[in-house]
Design a protein that fits this description.
Largest sheet: 7 strands, parallel
GO cellular component, one term: cytoplasm
CATH superfamily of the largest domain: HAD superfamily/HAD-like
Number of strands: 16
Protein name: 4-nitrophenylphosphatase
Low-confidence stretches: none
InterPro entries: HAD-like_sf (IPR036412), HAD-SF_hydro_IIA (IPR006357), HAD_sf (IPR023214)
Organism: Anopheles coluzzii (African malaria mosquito)
CATH class of the largest domain: Alpha Beta
Number of domains: 2
Mean pLDDT: 93
Family: Belongs to the HAD-like hydrolase superfamily.
Shape: elongated
Radius of gyration: 22 Å
Distance between the termini: 50 Å
Order of helices and strands: EHEEEHEHEHEHEHEHEEEHEHEHEEH
Strand order of the largest sheet: 1-16-15-14-2-5-6
Amino acid sequence: MESTPKMTKNLLKLSIEEKERFFDSFDMVQTDCDGVLWMLGEPFAGVEFTIRALRNNGKRVIYVSNNSVRTMADYRGKLDKLTDYTIDEEDIIHPAKIVIHYLRQRNFDGLCYVIGSSNFKACLREAGFQILDGPNEPVNESIREVAAVVNDGQPVKAVIVDFDYNMNNIKLLRAQMYLRHDALFIAGAMDKVLPVGPRTRYIGPGCYVEILQNVADRKPIVLGKPGLPMSKMLKQMYSVEDSRRVLFVGDQPEMDVKFGHTSNYQTLLVGTGNYKEDDLQKLADKPDELPDYYIDSFAELEQIVRDVVAYKVRNVTKCGL
């Protein structure tokens, strides 16, 4: 007997009883940032009211991004304005923080070759790890000169790959050589495309990771969305006992929704990224990317909270009569 195909529920189209069951089904919200709370740094109108409504009604909100290019000061600045200046830095998560947490758990003490942004590398250095990077400058097109740069004999114990604006072929070659000598293979952000506007998508670090995975014949430890190791670490960090009591909010099925399902969380897709409700039918054969719920924007979630709170008050009033 064939199982019934999974259907995504539009929150705005639910009955008030269904909205109440939805609202009562989670205690924690983990949300992506880019494409959900803001786009290119500009906050979407109304998201601060949703955050306030959730927190005022007993929901803890954690901010989980794959973007390690943005500095912690930048995250704090944006989230301070959206949280009435009550953001706790521990509630801001991105791959650089998870990588640091992972390496410390392993008592790692060795040289890391890092492909990543200046901020990503600065985070690792400030945490006390030895970093080797580059080169960013061109290398003469000579196999001997390239080989001398690539096969440098450095005792690299971990290759870490995240987004790098200055990515080049020599960096990939160096990473490939280090991976031949049993270095840890760690990936941060796994996005293959990066939405930077309604019609603009850049190549993401997931493409670099896939190249290295294929040529080195090794799977990375994925410490960004949608990696299971990242999921396990977040559950540990926030003492998540019942994963179904967590709602994960994102705008990208391949990264956010998949991460939510990997974590056994409930999932909510918002339409402020590249996906609208009509696009969900394209995911019919990708159940791990199909969200449990959909809403046009994170800001509209505030009305759901308001509706449920008002409904509960009416019910209490009726029972008291």
